[in-house]
């Protein structure tokens, strides 16, 4: 199977308005910058986006919010995006907030073919309203269903033409679990190498989960919040 494509536009072929997307990343770390830019330059809209967060006002998924291309966000944390707040409050953006661990496990379960699982996270809160409750070892748990997507867009440090991926440091975050849960998984990488080049023991996402891969360019890798140690006096 030929997986290598030229660029983000080619990788997103077949992605249409109204589809559900998973997008790797945590804050602005490890986000698929090239794919998001290509989407922002398209006329695709009414998207349901599953991501840990919605980027910031002028970067990441914030670009798609400004262009009103997202209909619904399924996320864990959204506190750094004023545009997200405006759309949520005026009712133009549907929002499903999920505890971070539950979000990760719902993605992982979707990739592993597990339809649902019980977790104590969210019981007794709005998160648990209307969900089945069972008791395990005397502790109540709520039923959470797995998440899958039409397209999963992930970012890796290195990849090969067979689709095997290696992530670097904290940019690993949500990318591996989302790579497993997309019907079509698109991987953009900083360095694309020939098949068989990567050490099998270092691979985080096996190529069987990846349908399209390309080498990205012009990565900004913005830092969302920079904290530095004060200089010694």
From TrEMBL:
Its EC number is 2.8.3.5. The keyword Transferase applies. One of its GO terms (molecular function) is succinyl-CoA:3-oxo-acid CoA-transferase activity. SUPFAM superfamilies: NagB/RpiA/CoA transferase-like. This is Succinyl-CoA:3-ketoacid coenzyme A transferase subunit A. Gene3D superfamilies: Glutaconate Coenzyme A-transferase. InterPro entries: 3-oxoacid_CoA-transf_A (IPR012792), CoA_trans_fam_I (IPR004165), NagB/RpiA_transferase-like (IPR037171). It holds the Pfam family CoA_trans. NCBIfam families: pcaI_scoA_fam. Keywords: Transferase.
């Amino acid at each position: 199977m030929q997986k290598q494509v030229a660029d983000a536009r080619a990788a997103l072929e077949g992605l249409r308005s109204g589809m559900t997307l998973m997008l790797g990343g945590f804050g602005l770390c490890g986000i698929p910058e090239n794919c998001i830019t290509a989407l922002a330059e398209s006329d695709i809209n009414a998207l349901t986006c599953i991501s840990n967060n919605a980027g910031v006002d002028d970067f990441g998924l914030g670009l798609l919010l400004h262009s009103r291309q997202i209909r619904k966000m399924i996320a864990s944390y959204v506190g750094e995006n004023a545009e997200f707040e405006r759309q949520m409050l005026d009712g133009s953006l549907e929002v499903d907030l999920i505890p971070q661990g539950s979000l990760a496990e719902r993605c992982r379960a979707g990739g592993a073919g597990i339809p649902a699982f019980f977790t104590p996270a969210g019981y007794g809160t709005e998160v648990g309203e209307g969900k089945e409750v069972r008791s395990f070892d005397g502790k109540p748990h709520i039923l959470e269903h797995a998440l899958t997507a039409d397209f999963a867009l992930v970012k890796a440090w290195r990849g090969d033409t067979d689709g095997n991926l290696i992530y670097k440091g904290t940019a690993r975050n949500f990318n591996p679990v989302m790579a497993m849960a997309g019907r079509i998984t698109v991987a953009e990488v900083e360095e694309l190498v020939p098949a068989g080049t990567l050490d099998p023991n270092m691979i985080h996402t096996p190529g069987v989960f990846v349908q399209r891969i390309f080498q990205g360019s012009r990565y900004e890798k913005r830092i969302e919040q920079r904290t530095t140690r004060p200089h010694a006096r």
